[in-house]
Amino acid sequence: xxGKAFFIDTxxxxxxxxxxxxxxxxxxxxxxxxxxxxxxxxxxxxxxxTYKVVRFQEHEGPxxxxxxxxxxxxxxxxxxxxxxxxxxxxxxxxxTIDSKTGAVLYNDKLRKANPEDIRGACPFDIPRAEKxxxxxxxxxxxxxxxxxxxxxxCVKTCPTGAMNFGDREEMIKLAKKRxxxxxxxxxNARLTGLDDLRVFYLLIDEPxxxxxxxxxxxxxxxxxxNLALRKIAISLKELAKExxxxxxxxx
Length: 251
Ligand code: SF4
Ligand code: SF4
Ligand code: SF4
Hints:
By secondary structure, the chain is of the alpha+beta class. It has two domains: about 5-75 and about 140-210, Alpha-Beta Plaits (2-Layer Sandwich), CATH 3.30.70.20; about 80-140 and about 220-250, Alpha-Beta Plaits (2-Layer Sandwich). Helices cover about 30% and strands about 20% of the residues. Strands 8-1-10-9 form a four-stranded mixed beta sheet. The protein has a two-stranded antiparallel sheet with strand order 2-3. Helix 2 runs antiparallel to helix 3 (about 115-120). One iron/sulfur cluster binds near residues 15, 17 and 157.
């Protein structure tokens, strides 16, 4: 499996949020209004204007001392993306896969979809919609930079080496090497995403202790009745348009 991948080594993350800011800056995304909820994490979650958020979780460590787990969260660029599976059926062409990198990319055609269907299909709860317009957005893998030989903005900015990016096979090797290096200090160290994603994390504990959606399977979501009805309605609309088109040609 070729293409690119990220390796995010959370053992080196100090939660400076440089990656989060760099993402905003490169993508020219505005700040969003936030409020203090008793956590250093800010903003509280991903949103249409925030493709990357560094999540903070406090746990009890050895000797009952508190420890922080930091989790730079972003789209995993799944090799077989469940969001695309959903997008293909409700808004064909709205989600594409970049042939050079494997990046999963959203475009305007996705507006035909119900945003909640696309978000609901993502096992990592990543894509977000703009309320007014229905546009959806998420991490782009900075393909504009990568196609020009540059690192993604978040990787370029990370001062500690927690964020890494390169050929997928190289990132797998680096991830396995780092796990071996830290396993004596962190016996619960583990890697996520090596089989089916383009973002791998090195964690020192159970993924759920970092974030509810830190790790998941990428199997497509089962279809419920409402979604099935919406898909039928979209198909019927398309058929009506095609009928109009054929009638015009004939007449
Ligand atoms: Fe943001 Fe680019 Fe990093 Fe994705 S790859 S999180 S778009 S900076
Ligand atoms: Fe799609 Fe979610 Fe996978 Fe990103 S992480 S490619 S949004 S299913
Ligand atoms: Fe962590 Fe690096 Fe992001 Fe800082 S820039 S929060 S060290 S991943």
